[in-house]
Specification:
By secondary structure, chain A is α/β, with parallel strands linked by helices. Helices cover about 40% and strands about 25% of the residues of chain A. Chain C is built from 11 helices and 10 strands. Classes of the chains: A alpha/beta (about 270), B mainly alpha (about 350), C alpha/beta (about 270), D mainly alpha (about 290), E alpha/beta (about 400).
Chain lengths: ~270, ~350, ~270, ~290, ~400
């Protein structure tokens, strides 16, 4: 069973082909990771899925339904596609708690009038969300000690965790994480890995991520898709992908360095 | 760990006033507002009313510019819509003031939505110019649609009335303006305890990730415009009842700039900042006039050379604030409070 | 040989909150090509920016450590002064001035020369000599060049400045393999013929190590492995670093194991 | 329809538009290099015009000496403003910087009232007074000669930006600030130069406009028309400033002549509104793509 | 510029010593009687500052003069003002402040807008009589504005005087044509409709009416319009200087021999000072004698002497000064009449006293005795610029409308 089905996706910006004929599936209940060198088109792919970019060709199906380009990002969020960003996209003017509560926005209903008065439906709904956020998410991600702090004052690792919390508050079916551990130290990475695995196992949420840290990727992914120059090179289990010569070449370049050295430096050694 | 975490319930934690001390101060503040008109002379009363109107309008603009990040140079225009609505209704229907004020707010909100429509495509300063264009059109309509607005001569209206009371004096107007200002500020504070307020701030901080979280940008931007212009409309309506004459020249561009300056000087995206900014911007020129008055016995010509000084000081204040305290009066206020909270006896 | 550039234990913090470099050190000897390798987000670009002084533009700050160029501490020196002193930073993504022509892009780079102005037409010829394609397009807007040509222009601008050291940030980014090889060949030629030292930041380990004499690999703001290029090439750790394969027994726990370990710890505490 | 009349009106409008182009150019230079929307441009114009008044009227210098002195004075003012009040705002939100320029405008108005009083003024006339006829079309001499002087500076500017090394530095900074730093360009100096050059254009236009229309501390309102011009043309487009300047000048005049003076502003703002809806970043402005 | 600053500096110093003298003198005059307070919302900054400064000087000098004459029936006079920047809300604030602390008997309002918006307040207080810078037609409505009067003819009446003069220049069936040029403001639009009606009554054809912004605007298109219709007279209203100069210069450059005229605020000497020879032949309607006219009279002489005393270097005093002085003069007359009648200084009593003014000799400020009609002084005279002499000269007799 696949929850996301990408087929023949192509995207280009004024002649530059960001994605070419990309097809793959995200099996339900897995951690699926997209890897590839810088500029391979990973983030563009995410942006197509969340509805910011309109691919020129191809389709994205979510739970069997084709997401046409008329379905705008907010609607996709409501359908259960949550996402974090490569460069943290928290709201710097708000506290951690408010950031997380924003995640629940799509599931709330109170209108402007009751918000102005605050008594009645708006307050009841706020309390329900607050309780849910506290008990389900803040506890789980161990961020109760910072809930009142403005996010701008937090460390990078904690900011990433708050972003994850916010995505979880959206009650997603698919959680898209763009480089969740980039820039973290080992300990922070370990925490994040643990959360990702728990999210999959305990909450049953499918995780689709883009990540560069190969150690972590290989350890926690169930399925890996490799992109280079906007194309899928290969996909499969971590152990298979690691051995694929195409992948090795994409990452290390031509592994025969001696011949490469001669080619690049025909007139002798570097000074 | 903070004391705030020891709350008995989430509800208590989400309250605007979280400690008994805060509640006490707020109560005291309300009491002062209540007693003030009985102690003040007509000039202070006048200033009180003026500050009240400015607080409402500044809070409205703060919602739009400070919290939602949409810069508007059209605030005076929206106030004008409210003022003309009240004036027209008062001249042609004689409705009591609560109804006319609500209608003024709604009319301004409707205009606000119309003006806000480009906000989905146009951002930042381009949007500011779009709102400026709107205020130029509004001024044109005020001046030229004579059958409704009375043209350049404007409209004169009767005092606000309700149940046979006529609110003619400033003393009476105070009891309309100030309670309304308190209510509207509280309502604005409430909005920012709910999902709607959070959506506004999200749009300001990063509209793209707001969209990812399922926030419909156009809907909420328009809502912010509507809410903000509603406040402006009510403020304009009060302006009309207060001066009892409304002309196209009552709402110049400089007034929009005044409110924008109030928001910035007070502290953008801060409810308290809106109040402080409005009070500051209204009272500083008055304080400078006191200075002029103090100089006049020595230099009878002081009024003549002090008036350009006022403009210089006004400009220098804005520039100085932005350079040295970009977060405005609210930040200064918080710093003072922190200072006292950390006094030797407390830890 | 005394190092041209010495970075000593620097720490860098962005926005006063996000720490990106945590005690990084490296050396670039006069006339050498040194490669600095690492994955996305490891802090490679930040390292270059903290040398060239462009960090302050992004609200970053060197909070500890020292950066010496030609024996002098250059921390806090204005970027334009550094450039005039012989340190040229070719930024990631090429950053050509898109609405200027190729030639104007080169003219802009002459600002690096204030103080010692050799005949400019000679230096333009040098650039066109290395990159004949730029000569054909010199009246064209740089925005209309292809990715490879833009990278050439970025290098050409560096040549105009006649620096002692060029810091090259990801020259291979987004270029097809053949083009990458072409560019690297020229980089190597520039190094040899002009005697310019080069600090090369790359994700593409193979091409970098092919022209570099020495390499550093960084992760999380620190150098994790370094050594002469040929030794690094042979090193298993490099493979592990890039592909997450292998790893010596006992050294690294799998992230899956950690999960259970941490969980237990949490219940106990 | 009276075509001769239309022709004369249009000609007057186009000539006025030429001066708008010059002011808009001053505005765009500052915006391109520093990303600051300068709401004080009208007041800088005013200040330069008062300087001219002081030099030519008060000190009775020859207008042809007073003119360059006033223009240089205005550009020094621009440089000083940048150094003392705009530079500390680097990195702050655009709205704060705009507000600073509004504050500066207020300071300048106060200064002018303080030094020269609030009386309305006329500049000593220094342009030839013989009527100018272009074919059968009459053109007021002040406007005609004002246009010629303005156009001369405009062309000078365009040549400078196109062909000089300094022009390259300015355009490079506008195109990519960080990259300009990395070229060894002293970006802070470029910012300062942009304000100096921008204010210079505005100052010359200020004297020329004041020479035709008179001068008072409210002169700065002309900045509003210029704002319309640069938004229509695109904030960062020199070409846009030139074309939109001429167009808006023409439109204002034609609307004023056929519909009445009260229609001048609404007509141009109507065009502005339409432009904002169909091309949010002006006719020639660049739309910055936001990265997700 | 520098000369200006210096001059101002000297002026300030001079005034300083003068005040020292006054504060000594005042107590001896005050003795036991309550002072009469003249209040004022004065536009010392903003668009109307050029006039406001001189109005302020006129009021100040008059106050000094009347006090040196022993005040009003022994009551000293105190003038209390505040700057308004010509903004209605600030004017209202000033009024409330001054009326709250000083209870002024009379008050100077700086704009039509202010005088309209303060009317209800004024009516309900009922103890202040107001006049000011406005000659707005609407204010002559005694029902709505019982305590406000106009210190001269209202704008409609000014147009009436101008049109009557124009009609008098027409011979036989050959009536001159006229164009109205006015500013896009409340002030500018005030008399236009009535003016057109009056022109029609007199048989004068209004061939064009042109609206512009006041101040520094390009008017070449408007000039081209006038070139088409070639009016014999152009009447300006709602301006101070620009763009009047531009219309005149450009139209003359085109070879038109149009006669240019203007209403009160457009007939200051400023026009001569700034335009020089170009101003020659311009005509204005003015209810007061110019400061430098050849007329004389005891009050006019007193005014000149006082002006000379307060600032010997200023020389000529603009019409704003005359206007300020005349306002204060009328207030004094009204207060005196009320006090003489043994009445309290209420709005009603003072309005009644004002209405009772008949064939009042203004001591040369106005050349003929005047009678108040509908709270205005419907009198005026046409003056013409003699550029060589640098002043206005009368070209008509005094015209008193009924």
């Amino acid at each position: 069973m696949s929850v996301l089905d990408i087929s023949n996706l192509s995207l280009s910006f004024g002649g530059v082909k960001a994605l070419q004929d990309v097809s793959f599936r995200v099996p339900e209940g897995t951690v699926t990771t997209i890897i590839g060198p810088n500029g391979a088109g990973k983030t563009s792919l995410f942006n197509c899925i969340s509805g910011f970019y309109k691919p020129q060709q191809g389709t994205i199906s979510y739970e069997g339904q084709v997401l046409s380009s008329g379905i705008k990002p907010p609607r996709r969020a409501a359908l259960g596609l949550a996402r974090t960003f490569q460069n943290i996209a928290l709201f710097r003017g708000m506290t951690v708690l408010d950031n997380i509560k924003l995640g629940a926005h799509v599931h709330m209903k109170s209108g402007l009038l009751s918000a102005l008065a605050y008594f009645g439906p708006a307050r009841r709904e706020e309390m329900v969300v607050r309780k849910d956020v506290e008990q389900r998410i803040i506890d789980f991600l161990e961020i109760d000690h910072i809930r009142r702090q403005p996010v701008a004052s937090l460390s990078y690792g904690l900011q990433k965790r708050v972003e994850l919390a916010r995505a979880l508050a959206m009650q997603p079916k698919v959680l898209m994480l763009d480089e969740p551990v980039a820039g973290m130290n080992r300990e922070e990475k370990e925490d994040m890995a643990r959360f990702i695995l728990d999210i999959r196992e305990e909450w049953g949420i499918t995780v689709l991520m883009v990540e560069h840290d190969m150690g972590m990727v290989m350890d926690i992914s169930d399925h890996i898709v490799v992109l280079n120059f906007g194309q899928v090179i290969t996909e499969g289990l971590p152990s298979d992908v690691q051995k694929n010569p195409e992948v090795i070449k994409a990452y290390l370049g031509n592994s025969d360095i001696d011949s490469l050295r001669k080619k690049l430096n025909p007139e002798g050694e570097a000074a | 760990m903070r004391i705030g975490d020891a709350k008995q319930s989430y509800e208590a934690d989400e309250a605007i006033w979280t400690t008994p001390t805060q509640k006490m101060w707020f109560g005291l503040f309300l009491l002062i507002l209540l007693v003030f008109p009985f102690m003040a002379d007509s000039y202070l009363l006048y200033l009180g009313c003026l500050v009240g109107i400015a607080v409402i309008s500044t809070t409205g603009l703060n919602i739009l510019t400070g919290f939602t990040g949409l810069i508007s140079l059209g605030q005076a225009g929206f106030m004008g819509v409210g003022a003309y609505t009240v004036a027209w209704l008062s001249v042609n229907t004689g409705l009591p003031f609560p109804i006319t004020l609500v209608l003024a707010g709604l009319m301004a909100a409707a205009v606000g939505i119309l003006v806000g429509l480009p906000s989905l495509r146009v951002k930042g300063l381009y949007l500011a110019i779009a709102t400026l264009a709107a205020s130029v059109f509004l001024h044109f309509i005020f001046a030229e649609w004579e059958s409704v607005t009375g043209g350049m001569g404007g409209l004169s209206l009767e005092p606000a009335h309700l149940f046979g009371w006529s609110f003619q004096s400033d003393f009476m107007m105070y009891f309309i303006i100030v309670p309304l200002a308190v209510l509207m500020v509280l309502a604005a504070a409430n909005v920012f305890r709910t999902r709607i307020g959070r959506a506004f701030i999200a749009i300001r901080d990063r509209d793209i990730s707001a969209e990812i979280l399922g926030i419909d940008l156009l809907r909420y931007k328009l809502m912010s415009f509507a809410l903000s212009s509603f406040y402006a409309g009510v403020a304009g309506g009060l302006f009309a009842y207060f001066y009892r004459v409304v002309t196209p020249e009552s709402f110049p561009l400089s007034m929009s700039i005044f409110y924008l300056a109030a928001v910035i000087v007070g502290g953008m995206g801060n409810i308290l900042g809106g109040i402080l900014g409005a009070a500051f911007m209204t009272l500083v020129p008055e304080a400078l006039k006191l200075l002029t008055a103090a100089l006049t016995p020595f230099y009878p010509n002081a009024p003549v050379f002090m008036s350009p000084m006022l403009e210089i000081i006004f400009g220098a204040l804005i520039v100085g604030f932005l350079i040295f305290e970009p977060h405005g009066l609210a930040e200064i206020w918080h710093r003072i409070r922190r200072f006292f909270r950390l006094w030797p006896f407390q830890n | 040989m005394e190092a041209l550039l010495e970075i000593d234990n620097i720490e860098v913090v962005y926005n006063k909150s996000v720490q990106v470099l945590r005690g990084l050190s490296l050396r670039v000897p006069e006339g050498a090509i040194v490669a600095l390798l690492g994955s996305n987000g490891a802090g490679k670009s930040t390292t270059l920016k903290s040398v060239s002084g462009l960090l302050t533009l992004e609200d970053g700050e060197v909070t500890a450590g020292e950066v010496r160029f030609r024996g002098k501490d250059v921390k806090g020196t204005a970027p334009e002064k550094l450039v005039r002193n012989g340190l040229f930073h070719v930024m990631e993504g090429r950053r050509v001035f898109e609405d200027l022509t190729v030639e104007e892009n080169l003219i802009a780079a002459t600002y690096a020369l204030t103080g010692n102005k050799p005949s400019l037409s000679d230096s333009y010829e040098t650039v066109y000599n290395y990159f004949p394609r730029l000569k054909d397009r010199r009246k064209q807007l740089a925005g209309y060049l292809s990715g490879g040509e833009q990278q050439m222009l970025a290098l050409g601008r560096a040549l105009i400045a006649q620096p002692k050291l060029i810091m090259l940030d990801e020259p291979s980014l987004g270029l097809a393999p053949l083009l990458v090889e072409e560019i690297f060949t020229i980089v190597s030629r520039i190094n040899r013929e002009q005697g310019t030292a080069i600090l090369l930041v790359e994700q593409n380990a193979a091409v970098s190590l092919a022209i570099a004499s020495y390499g550093y690999i960084m992760e999380n703001g620190k150098i994790v492995i370094d050594g002469p290029a040929d030794k690094l090439t042979a090193n298993e750790d490099v493979r592990e670093f890039y592909l997450g394969v292998g790893g010596k027994e006992g050294e690294a726990r799998s992230y899956r194991d950690i999960k259970h370990y941490k969980r237990r710890k949490r219940w106990l505490s | 329809m009276d075509w001769l009349f239309f022709g004369e009106i249009s000609l007057a409008g186009l000539a006025m538009g030429g001066l708008y182009s010059l002011i808009a150019l001053g505005f765009v230079i500052i915006y391109k290099a520093t990303r600051v929307i300068n709401f004080a441009i009208g007041e800088i114009m005013m200040f330069a015009a008062y300087l001219f008044l002081a030099f030519a009227g008060g000190m009775e210098l020859s207008p042809w000496i007073a003119l360059p002195m006033a223009v240089i004075g205005g550009s020094i003012l621009g440089g000083v403003i940048e150094k003392t009040m705009i530079r500390p705002m680097l990195g702050e939100s655009p709205i704060s910087v705009v507000m600073v320029t509004i504050g500066i405008a207020s300071i300048l108005v106060g200064l002018v009232e303080f030094i020269w009083t609030a009386d309305p003024q006329l500049l000593p006339s220094f342009l030839p007074r013989e009527p100018v006829f272009i074919g059968p079309l009459y053109l007021a001499p002040k406007i005609a000669y004002g246009f010629l002087i303005g156009a001369a500076l405009l062309i000078l500017y365009l040549l400078y930006f196109r062909f000089s090394r300094g022009g390259v530095a300015l355009r490079a900074t506008a195109s990519d600030q960080a990259a300009a730093y990395s070229m060894g360009i002293n970006v802070r100096r470029v910012f300062n130069m942009a304000w100096v050059f921008g204010s210079l254009a505005a100052s010359l236009a200020g004297v020329l406009v004041a020479a035709t229309g008179g001068l008072s501390p409210q002169f700065g309102i002309i900045g509003l028309s210029v704002l319309v011009v640069v938004i229509v043309g695109g904030l960062d487009s020199i070409l846009g400033a030139l074309i939109a300047g001429v167009f808006i000048g023409w439109l204002e005049t034609v609307a004023g002549a056929y519909l009445g003076g009260e229609y001048r502003m609404p007509a141009t703002f109507l065009v502005l509104a339409v432009i904002l809806v169909i091309r949010p970043y002006g006719l020639f402005g660049t739309h910055e793509i936001e990265r997700v | 510029m520098f000369r200006n600053v210096l001059k101002k500096g000297r002026r300030l110093a001079g005034l300083g010593s003068l005040v020292a003298a006054l504060t000594v003198a005042a107590p001896t005059m005050a003795q036991d009687k309550e002072p009469i307070v003249f209040g004022g919302s004065i536009p010392l900054s903003g668009v109307f500052a050029f006039a406001g400064i001189h109005i302020h000087a006129g009021l100040t000098d008059y106050t000094d003069w009347i006090n040196s004459e022993g005040g009003i029936n022994g009551h000293p006079v105190k003038y209390v003002m505040e700057d308004t920047a010509y903004e209605v809300d600030r004017s209202v604030a000033a009024f409330k402040k001054i009326s709250g602390s000083e209870s002024p008997a009379t008050y100077y309002g700086d704009s039509t807008g202010f005088m309209k918006s303060i009317a209800s307040e004024l009516n309900s207080q009922g103890n202040t009589l107001m006049s000011g810078a406005s000659f707005a037609t609407a204010l002559t409505d005694n029902e709505q504005y019982p305590y406000q009067f106009i210190p001269g003819p209202n704008y409609t009446q000014m147009f009436g005087i101008i049109l009557e003069y124009i009609a008098s220049q027409g011979e036989g069936g050959d009536m001159p044509t006229v164009a109205f040029v006015y500013s896009d403001t409340e002030f500018g639009k005030d008399p236009i409709e009535n003016g057109k009606d009056r022109a029609a009554e007199l048989g004068i054809e209004v061939v064009e009416d042109i609206v512009t912004k006041p101040g520094s605007v390009d008017v070449s298109a408007e000039v081209l319009k006038l070139r088409r219709v070639r009016p014999d007279y152009v009447v300006f209203h709602g301006y101070v200087l620009s763009p009047i100069n531009e219309f005149m210069v450009q139209m003359r450059q085109m070879g038109l021999d149009t006669q240019f005229m203007g209403t009160f605020w457009s007939s200051d000497k400023l026009i001569i000072d700034k335009m020089g020879a170009d101003a020659d032949g311009y005509m204005g309607v003015m209810p007061y004698n110019y400061y430098d006219s050849e007329e004389s009279g005891p009050m006019l002489d007193a005014l000149r002497a006082q002006a000379e005393k307060s600032d010997p270097e200023a020389g000529y005093r603009p019409t704003g000064y005359m206007q300020g002085w005349f306002n204060a003069m009328v207030w004094t007359e009204v207060v005196k009449r009320t006090l003489d009648a043994g009445k309290e200084l209420t709005g009603d009593n003072m309005a009644e006293a004002l209405a009772s003014i008949e064939d009042w000799d203004t001591g040369g400020i106005i050349g003929i005795p005047v009678t108040v009609r509908d709270m205005s002084f419907p009198v005026g005279r046409i003056w013409r610029v003699n550029a060589e002499e640098g002043r206005y000269e009368p070209v008509s007799d005094w015209i008193h409308l009924d």
